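Researcher: Checking consistency across runs. Here is AsnC family transcriptional regulator again:
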Amino acid sequence: MIEAFVLVVVKPGNEEKVYEQVKKNPRVKEVYRVYGEYDIILRVEVPTMEELDRFHDETLRRIPDIEMTETLIASTYRGVNG
């Protein structure tokens, strides 16, 4: 299983609209609104890199209110208590 964190920049004022679209996707496990350079962080789980490519190309790129994304693929560390 591949776990990735997708940092998302949204057109101003459209954060709620993007949230409503991405939360429906079964690959999205968590969604956070954040302050700073990015507006939303997604935690995504997919079985393969090809599935991550599909999520990026067929889901994120089709949401017109997303201006930019940066994807971070998790390595070996897990949560501090597990």
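Researcher: Does this match what you'd expect to see?
Model: One thing to look at in this run: Residues 75 and 81 are 17 Å apart (CA to CA).
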